[in-house]
Amino acid sequence: MKKINNFLLSTGDDCISIQTGCSNIYIHDVDCGPGHGISIGGLGKDNTKACVSNITVRDVTMHETTNGVRIKSWQGGSGSVKQVMFSNIQVSDVANPIIIDQYYCDGGGCHNETSAVAVSNINYINIKGTYTKQPIRFACSDSLPCTGISLSTIELKPATEKASSLDPFCWEAHGELKTQTLPPIQCLKTEKSPEASQSNNDAC
């Protein structure tokens, strides 16, 4: 197990960026901000294969970041991101605290693709604080939906009365709400069958 811990990170980009080939990573006791948050990806650029697994991010504070905990991948890639846990995350004035984006495109001009980096078994536990744009965004692939998303003890409130109050967004995201959430997440689809999830996963 590789550890990243006890850091104060202020940057104009991701505080921590986890890229292909990373596995068995334990990140804890990190203060992030300002910056772009903690990201897995972007993965699968230029139709490449990406493999990330067994990542734990916990006991993290984020303030005035563009994103909180994010998984981002380009269309056209392959491989998988699986067995990820985000736990005990405190956010303050974070634009987008929770994001999965399988349509990541840095700079524009990206074309729709059918292949994607599979995303599965992603757990969000005890994520609380304030946001300024959208609390939760799960934008998953049409051809390879996200599976095994679970959320427990999520409490996210607009930072101010003037803050944007966009509802949680889900597209082809399948999983389970372990507890009630704030705001309510009504767009998450019922979990797909294990057989379907496994057959769609690109082996790494």
Any key phrases for this structure?
204 residues; mainly beta; Pectin_lyase_fold/virulence; Pectin_lyas_fold; secreted
Describe this structure in words.
By secondary structure, the chain is mainly beta. Helices cover 3% and strands 55% of the residues. It contains one helix and 14 strands. The strands form two sheets. The protein has an eight-stranded parallel sheet, with no helix packed on it. Strands 2-4-6-8-10-12 form a six-stranded parallel sheet, with no helix packed on it. The chain is globular. Pfam families: Glyco_hydro_28. This is Polygalacturonase At1g48100-like. It is found in: Secreted, Cell wall. Belongs to the glycosyl hydrolase 28 family.
| Low-pLDDT ranges | 194-200
Strand order of the largest sheet: 1-3-5-7-9-11-13-14
Number of distinct beta strands? 14
What count of helical segments does DSSP give? 1
Q: What is the H-and-E element order?
A: EEEEEEEEEEEEEEH
Q: Provide the residue-averaged pLDDT.
A: 92
Structural class: mainly beta
Largest sheet: 8 strands, parallel
Query: What's the Cα radius of gyration?
Result: 16 Å
How far is the N terminus from the C terminus? 19 Å
| Percentage of β-strand residues | over 45%
Overall outline: globular
Helix content: under 10%
Topology:
Blueprint: E1 2-9, E2 16-18, E3 23-32, E4 38-43, E5 49-63, E6 67-73, E7 78-94, E8 96-101, E9 118-131, E10 136-139, E11 146-158, E12 169-171, E13 173-177, E14 189-190, H1 194-200
Parallel strand pairs: 1-3, 2-4, 3-5, 4-6, 5-7, 6-8, 7-9, 8-10, 9-11, 10-12, 11-13, 13-14
